[in-house]
Structure formats: C-alpha cells, structure tokens
Design brief:
Largest sheet of chain A: none
Order of helices and strands of chain A: HHHHHHHHHH
Structural class of chain B: mainly alpha
Order of helices and strands of chain B: HHEHHEHHHHHHHHHHHHHHHHHHHEEEHH
Shape of chain A: globular
Low-confidence stretches of chain A: none
Largest sheet of chain B: 3 strands, antiparallel
Strand order of the largest sheet of chain B: 3-4-5
Radius of gyration of chain A: 18 Å
Number of domains of chain A: 1
Number of domains of chain B: 1
Helix content of chain A: over 70%
Structural class of chain A: mainly alpha
Oligomer: heterodimer
Mean pLDDT of chain B: 91
Low-confidence stretches of chain B: none
Shape of chain B: globular
C-alpha cells in the first residue's frame, strides 16, 4: 500500500518538480548572464499553452513516440520512487531514450534525423555508464533495491566519487545543455535548429517537455542515492550537481559529437569502471 | 502414451513430408509443408508443457543410426569434393575417419541408454522448434511462390525437402540422449543449412553455403573428437551422463572440444562470418535455421556442458567469446546497410549473450539463457519473416528501401517495429533475460563493463531502425497488400511477442525454471515474482498504446506539414523539398553520415576474427593446461 502511495505521489510530483527546476534553471542562468529572467513557473505556463494549441506534424508517428517517451520517463520515476529495482529503472530509461530517438527518426526531416543520429551516439555513451553506476551501488550496498541502497549507509559518495563524476556527464547529456547539447538544444540557435525536437509542436511538444522534466528529476534522484541514508544530503547533493551543471552550461562552448565520442565517452566509462573495480576489490 | 505419439509425430512426420516433397509437384510440396507446419504447431504446446520422458530403442535402430552417421558424412565429403571445397572435404573426411575409428574400435556396439530422453531444457527447445518452426512452415509457401518468380533458377524441390527435413532433425537433436544420435541430427542440420543457403544456385549462394559447411563441419569434427575423449575418460556417451560438476583432467579437453562445436554452430566469433553470409538464403531459412532454431542448437550444447566446465579456463574463454560477439557484432551491425544482415549481426549478439550466460553458469544465468532462447526466437523469426514479406512485396531489402515502409505496408511495418522494440525495451520478455544476465554478472566488473557497452550499442542498432520504418510522408503512396499466407503467421508471432510477457511470471515458473533445472540445482533462482513488473508495466503501456492508436486512426484525412527547412520548405512531386536556387524546390534526404564516416569505417570484422581466434586458442590451451 505504501509503495502504491509513493508511486502515485511520484507520478504527480515529478513533472511539477521538474517544471519548477527548469524554471529555476532559467532564472539562475539569466542572472548569470546579467538578465532578470522569466518567472519560475514560466515553463509550466508554456506547456499548458502548448497543450491548447493545434499540433502541426509531418506524420502521426513522432507524436505517438512523444507520448511513449513521456510514459517511459514517468514510469522510471515512479518505479524509482516506489523503491523498485535499479536495473528495472535502467531498462525504463532505455525505453525513454529509444522513443525520443524513434520519434526524431520517424520524421522525414533533415534536422530531426541528424539530431536523432547524434542522440543515438549520446545514448550509446550514457547507457553503459548508468549500468556501471548502478552496479557500483550494488557493490556498495549488496542490493539493487532503491530503498536498500538508501538505508544501507550514509554518503556512499565517499566510496564512489568517480561514479558520481561520470554520472555528472550523463546529467549534462540528458539536460541537453552545453557543452553536450549536440542532438537538441534548449535554444533553437544552433546548426541543428532544435535537432530531435524540430518537428514537434503543440501537444506533442508539451509531452516531450513534460517527459524531459521527469527525466531530469529521475537523474537527480539517482544523485540523491549518493547521499545514502542522510536526508539533508539527499536534498543538497542533487541541488549542488544541478547548479554545477548550470555553471558548466554558461561557461562551456558546445562540443562536437566527434569530441564526445573520442574523449568524453571513454573518460566517463573509465571513471565509472575504475570506481566499480575499486568497490569490488575493497568489498562491501 | 499420447505424449509418445506426439513426440513420434514431430520426429517422423517431417521426414515423411520431405519424401513427398521429392515428387515433382509444386501443389504437393506446398501442402506437405503447410500440413507439417500445422501439425508441429498444434503439438508444440502439449510437448513443451508436457512431462519429460526417456525412451529406449531396439539395438538395431542404434546400429542404423551409426551407419547413417557414416553414410551421411561420406556423402557430404563427396559433395564437398565435387564443389572443390578443400576445407569442407578435409574436415568432413577427418570426422568420418575419427567416427569410423570410434565405431569400429573402442566404442563398438556401444549405445547410451535411453537413446531418446527429454528434460526441461529439451522441452523448452522443442517448444521453440515446433512452435516457431510450425509458423515458419505455414508462411513458407506464400513466400516461395513470389521468390521463385524472381529467382527462376532456384532449386525449389530441394528447398522444400531440406526445410521440412530440418525440423525433424532439430526435434531429434533436442531429444537425443545418446551422443551418437545427437551427432547424426547435428550433421543433418548442417547439411540442411548448406543446401538451403545454396537454394538460389548462384555462385555467391553456393560460396556462402560452402563457407557455412566448412565452418560447421569443423565444429562437427570437434564434436566427434570431444566424444572420443569423453568416452575414453568415462566410458559413456550419454547426454545425461555429462559431468554435473567442474571437471579437470583429460575430460576437460573433451568438454572444451564440445564447446568449440557449439560455438561454430552458434556462429560465435571467430566463426561469425558464415551466418552473415548465409543471409543470401530465402527469408524462411533465415528465420528458421539462422535465427530461431539451428543456431540455438549450438547454444544448447554449450549450456549442456556448462556445469562441467564451471570455473575452469574453458568457462572463462566461453564468457569472453560471448562478450566479444555481443559487443563486436553490435558494432558490425551499425555499419551494415541491408536489413537481413543487420538481423544476422543481431542474432549473433543475442547468441553471444546466451553464451555468456552458459559461461557464467550460475542458476540465475542459466535461467536467463533459457529465457533469451525462447523470446529471441519469437522476435527474431518475426523480424526475418517481416523483412522477407517486405522484400517480396516491395522489392526493397536495404535500410534506405525499407524507410517509410509504413506508407506502403502498414501492417508489416507495425509488426517489424513491434519486433524491434521487443528486442530492446521493457515490458517485453528479452529484458527479463537481460536482467538475469546483469544480475549474474555482478561481482565480475570486467564482464559487466562489456555487457554494459553492448547494451548501449543495442539502442544504436534497433531504435534507429524502428523510427526509420515509420518515417514516411503521408502523400497517399500506393498500399501494397500483404498476402494472407504470409500475414497470418506473422500476426501469430506478433501476438506471441505481445502476449507472452503478460504471463511471464507463471511461464517462468512452469517452463523456464524446469528448463534451467537440467543442471540439478534450482535453488538460488529468483522467484517468478521478480518479473511481476513486466506484466504490470505491460498493462499500463497497453492502455496508453490503445489511446494513442485511436488517436492515430482519427488523424485520417487531416493535412500534414512539410518537414521544416528554415522556412524554405515545400514539396517537389510529393517529396519533401526546400526552396533552392532559382526558387525551384529541391528534394532533400539525410543519410546517416555519422555511422558511415564514424563507426562504419572501423575495421570491425578483422578485429573480431583476430580476437576471436586468440580467445579460441586460449580456450583450447586453457583446457590443455587444466588437463595436465
């Protein structure tokens, strides 16, 4: 029963929290750039407005994929909040990522398909890191259960600093912020226009935005795992990482996918892997 | 009693139908194929969910099998010689010599008792062979009619004879307890594979068939040699008598040789080349032999010997060969342009994953392997049948040609997308297998790292293609009807792919746990409830999809936008275009430049063959060192 309640709560709260996060993000970024910035609830207003608009699409499939993308993102947050199995969460993130790509690939549009290709490379780089980080939590706590990891000890980050760094790279990719806004950017000013999101409009775009909020919340929840049984750590750690991601976004220029594939991917993999080895040899 | 009749039927009906197919009548062949398919399909569930059995045969039948073994090898050697395949001839002849020496020398008159037996693993294999095999046979006549129109030189009679005969041999293989019997059926499947790959009789088809022949005959040679070593050590030639605990000494060499035999049949590196080239065969052959059944026989053999090699260097080498296949063939798939070749690479990937499970050898890993065996067969058979139907209807077989298939063949495209998704995402069955594999690999960081990389590459292979298949312009392209003969079996496979995950927890306990129990220990296995999340997610997803589909159906007749081109978008003869120089609309197209110039240019195959050969050498060397 308690699982059901936490699952239902997560399903409602995750998108709201995500909307506020993105709103706060825009505010903080604006201040960093010497602007005033929109109200914190602006992203939520935008999505509500989008829901009422008529959708313009090139064929029916990108919209279907957008809805499934939202479903996957929401399901992964719900499973996580209900204390589910970390590997199940991982498989659901694969689901989410796959439908974002399939949706972009399903539009016969140059920008969208180019974005899909780059998103594929990013997913290929992120998925293994997630598995290795989750396996690290298993090595540290002896279980893949979210609650078991949380209650095992305070601050497993002490033993998993490199895993945390590699997960930060995943966060940058999933937030679609520079230097890793290769497949789509929150600002439609790059050579790809909006990449994977180019062909979305109206309600379909609203669903993609909401899905993106849930994805962001999920990654921050994974960061909360690094705080273990410490409640204030579970709030502080995700907040710090998010702020760090904002800072990086504002100071780093965009990279190319070649750079990502050649340097960032091996580096993140190596960091996550060496942390796993360390945990393995040290024992629980 | 009824169970014995059912098993007798699946063993004897296919050869009888093969005899009928020799007659020069296309109608007769088609009906022999259809009836065999229907009967096997009807018997699949009673046999698969039935009781295990053991059946003793009269000594003269055993002698007949030994003689048939030798005759078959002699015939293959003659064929290989006639087609000037030196390797094929050498490996077959060497096998014949070894076998004759074993038969006439030490193992004279030796027969394992019972000759035929079935435990849980055999029953799961039988379910796959007869269920998926039956559906493929039902699909075949409609496909072949069109195939023969386009390939008038193809050997039609031979095709039907070997296709139905193959299913009899495959049933024999999974029910064999006597290794002599196992060897006979193993070789028959090899011969069927060769003959069916060469159906088209073009030089390329014959060359590909011969490559498959020599590689799998090398495996057969290892099988006979392994049998000799094991017989010398234990004096027994029974599948059930294979050691259940880790072995050392010369017996380990025997098991290592059996492992190599399994690796050749399962097309693991460095032998993966034959399976990719075997894609010249007609689609039912690829679906049946090269995806869902024959290649699984290799995995089946490796699984059988996995308890005996646990913790030895052989098991480690098997794990790494599987991992190399899992990761490497994913990278190879990215560079492929032709649908069937991508599917071949993906088959080797999944067989690699099963091989990894066999090498890990824990009860959970074994259960994972059995799960993957079952679900991969359904999804991959559907993919091959779908790509085949599209090829025969639209003439397109490569990725660019299949793009936007949904405009011309909506049902086929939908089934293909479904099958691709079942290989990749939850809540479909394969994910449960992957969950078990990942859990079993915990505590082995290096194995886990390779598995993780492979899972990343998976997305690259399937998600891209799934989107591509529905990437169409709603310009009212001409619909091409899918013939009923091909459509109904594909729909049945699609229904299985959707339906099975909903009963996964009970299926796991009723079928897959007994399937993994051939190794004795079932404790340490996760309970069926572990997978309760799959039907739950499936139910939620089902609701969402129903709502979405009703939305898609309501979009009929609405107007669609031209794909965005910075404001200069428009149409050129119904094709998306941009306003170019002289204000003319120029069509645009995006090829996957990233894959062509990046990953596509890596020398994947050379690396795989070299690394695979090194690992194979390590396997044999490890067995030798472990033996002394």
């Amino acid at each position: 029963m308690q699982t059901l309640i936490s699952a239902a709560t997560a399903a409602v709260i995750a998108p709201l929290l995500g909307a506020l996060l993105v709103g706060g993000d825009r505010k903080v970024s604006a201040r960093m750039q010497g602007r005033y910035g929109p109200p914190v609830a602006q992203p939520a207003y935008d999505v509500i407005k989008l829901l009422g608009k008529e959708g313009k699409a090139v064929n029916p499939w990108p919209s279907v994929c957008a809805a499934l993308y939202l479903f996957g993102a929401l399901a992964s947050v719900v499973v996580f909040a209900a204390g589910g199995h970390l590997l199940v969460v991982f498989f659901l993130t694969t689901f989410t990522a796959s439908f974002l790509i399939a949706g972009a690939q399903a539009a016969p549009s140059p920008y969208s398909r180019l974005g899909a290709g780059r998103e594929l490379l990013q997913v290929m780089a992120c998925e293994p890191v997630l598995i290795l980080v989750f396996a690290g939590f298993h090595e540290a706590s002896g279980s893949f259960g979210v609650y078991a990891v949380l209650s095992h000890a305070a601050f497993p980050i002490v033993r998993m600093p490199l895993a945390c760094v590699s997960l930060f790279a995943v966060l940058l990719v999933k937030l679609r912020k520079s230097p890793l806004d290769l497949s789509s950017s929150s600002h439609a000013h790059q050579e790809l226009v909006r990449g994977t999101l180019t062909e979305y409009s109206g309600p379909a775009l609203a669903m993609v935005e909401a899905g993106h909020w849930c994805e962001t919340v999920l990654l921050l929840l994974v960061f909360a795992l690094f705080a273990g049984s410490s409640p204030w750590g579970a709030v502080l750690l995700p907040a710090i990482t998010y702020l760090a991601a904002l800072l990086v976004d504002n100071v780093a220029p965009r990279l190319t996918w070649r750079w990502m594939l050649r340097w960032l991917w091996p580096a993140a993999m190596l960091a996550a892997f060496s942390n796993l080895l360390w945990l393995h040899w040290e024992g629980p | 009693m009824t169970a014995a009749v059912a098993v007798g039927a699946v063993l004897l009906l296919p050869p009888a139908a093969a005899l009928v197919s020799i007659l020069p009548s296309r109608t007769l062949r088609r009906w022999a194929c259809r009836i065999t398919g229907g009967v096997l399909l009807a018997l699949a569930v009673p046999i698969g969910f039935g009781e295990g059995f053991s059946h003793t045969v009269a000594p003269w039948v055993g002698t007949l099998v030994h003689a048939a073994d030798c005759l078959l090898l002699a015939a293959v050697a003659a064929v290989a010689l006639r087609l000037r395949s030196l390797l094929g001839f050498v490996f077959t002849a060497a096998q014949l010599v070894l076998l004759l020496w074993l038969e006439l020398g030490p193992a004279r008159g030796m027969a394992a008792d019972p000759a035929l037996a079935a435990d849980g693993l055999s029953l799961v294999m039988a379910l796959v062979v007869n269920g998926v095999g039956g559906l493929v046979l039902l699909y075949t006549p409609a496909y072949m009619d069109r195939y023969l129109e386009e390939h008038p030189g193809a050997a039609e009679g031979r095709f039907y004879v070997f296709l139905v005969l193959f299913l009899g041999a495959m049933n024999g293989l999974v029910f064999s307890n006597d290794l002599h019997w196992f060897l006979l059926f193993w070789e028959i499947t090899t011969v069927c594979s060769f003959a069916l790959i060469a159906t088209d009789r073009t030089p390329e088809a014959v060359r590909s068939g011969l490559q498959a022949l020599w590689m799998t005959m090398l495996g057969g040679l290892c099988l006979v040699a392994g049998m000799m070593v094991l017989f010398a050590r234990t004096g027994s030639l029974s599948m059930a008598g294979l050691a259940q605990e880790p072995t050392s000494g010369p017996a380990l060499i025997g098991f290592a040789l059996l492992a190599v035999a399994g690796l050749t049949k399962a097309a693991q590196v460095p032998f993966h080349g034959w399976l990719i080239r075997a894609m010249v065969a007609p689609a039912p052959v690829s679906a049946l032999l090269h995806a869902s059944t024959m290649v699984k026989a290799g995995a089946y053999l490796i699984l059988r010997i996995s308890p005996a090699v646990q913790g030895t260097p052989v098991a480690h080498a098997v794990i790494w060969i599987g991992l190399l296949g899992f990761l490497g063939l994913g990278a190879a798939a990215v560079a492929q342009k032709e649908g069937k070749r991508i599917l071949a690479c993906s088959t080797i990937m999944h067989l690699g994953l099963i091989t990894v499970c066999a090498g890990l050898g824990s009860p959970a890993a074994t259960a994972g392997a059995v799960l993957l065996l079952l679900f991969h067969a359904v999804s991959k058979a559907l993919l091959f049948l779908g790509v085949g139907a599209a090829r025969r209807t639209t003439g397109a077989g490569d990725l660019a040609g299949l793009r936007g298939l949904s405009a011309r063949m909506p049902l086929t495209a939908f089934l293909l997308v479904l099958a691709l998704l079942t290989l990749l995402v939850p809540p479909f069955g394969l994910v449960a297998g992957k969950q078990l594999v990942l859990e079993s690999a915990v505590g082995r960081p290096f194995v886990l790292a390779f598995l993780a990389l492979g899972m990343g590459v998976h997305v690259l292979v399937y998600a891209r293609w799934a989107g591509d298949l529905v990437c169409h312009v709603p310009s009212g392209a001409e619909r091409m009807p899918l013939s009923r003969g091909m459509g109904v079996p594909m729909l049945a496979l699609g229904a299985l792919a959707i339906g099975l995950p909903f009963v996964l927890p009970s299926l796991y306990e009723k079928l897959l746990v007994p399937g993994a129990a051939f190794r004795g220990a079932v404790e340490g296995l996760p309970a069926g409830g572990t997978f309760a999340w799959i039907p739950a997610t499936g139910a939620a997803l089902g609701l969402v999809v129903l709502v979405l589909l009703s939305g898609v159906l309501r979009t009929a007749g609405r107007s669609w936008a031209a794909p965005y081109c910075c404001g200069a978008e428009g149409w050129s003869d119904g094709v998306p275009a941009f306003k170019g120089p002289l204000s003319r609309f120029e069509p645009h197209r995006v090829e996957d430049a990233i894959f062509a110039s990046g990953i596509g240019s890596w020398p994947v195959d050379r690396v795989l063959v070299t690394a695979g050969a090194a690992l194979l050498a390590a396997l044999l060397l490890g067995a030798l060192l472990g033996a002394t």
